Amino acid sequence: MGEVIRLEERRARLRPDAVVGDPVRAEFLFDLASPFTYLAAERVDRAFDAVAWTPACSRTLRCRAVPANEREAEQIIELAEERAAALRLPLEWPERWPMPVPAAMRVAHYAANEGRGAAFVLAATRLAFAGGFDLDDLEILTEAAAAAGLRLDHCLRAAREERRDGAMEAAARRLLGAGADRLPALWSSRGVFWGEERVADAATTARLAAAANR
Known about the structure:
By secondary structure, the protein is of the alpha+beta class. The chain has helices at residues 7-14, 35-47, 70-87, 102-113, 117-129, 138-147, 152-159, 163-177, 199-212; strands spanning 25-30, 50-55, 185-188, 191-194. The N and C termini lie far apart (45 Å).
């Protein structure tokens, strides 16, 4: 259904002039139900040398990834479509949006623990918001897992493991404690930046700090 993306090859093409030295690191906290995760993920993967991909529970935050009513949904749709146009990214809305995707989030937690967080999040968000597919549909979820190089039996088990929800709630509480109120968010040595539009600010700040320490 989808094309398998070779992340290592793409990173090599996109970072031909990478600076030798300590890698510029960040933690990317996200909710797969949010179109802003899709809009941010591609740039996050390119902007940092090392990223920890952390699914977080949007319900814990004040600004939820899944809107509470029709008016909020309309506002998110309008803003996401404006940002997608500005970034020149395709945007298709999954048929069941706005709905949470708990199974996909649990698989994202498993993927991150296996060191495949980037591959899974990129594959999943492309399927959801570039293809318009429902991530909690078993066929679509296994497609994302296969594209990320994950064992399907382990992913299917992870999708049912409610214990993973606690880790995602804890991640969101960490963000709240740092003053953040929305997802996606980036956490680097220079602090927390929240909102898809802050990706460039977070990357620039982190790289300047890293350069100053060399």
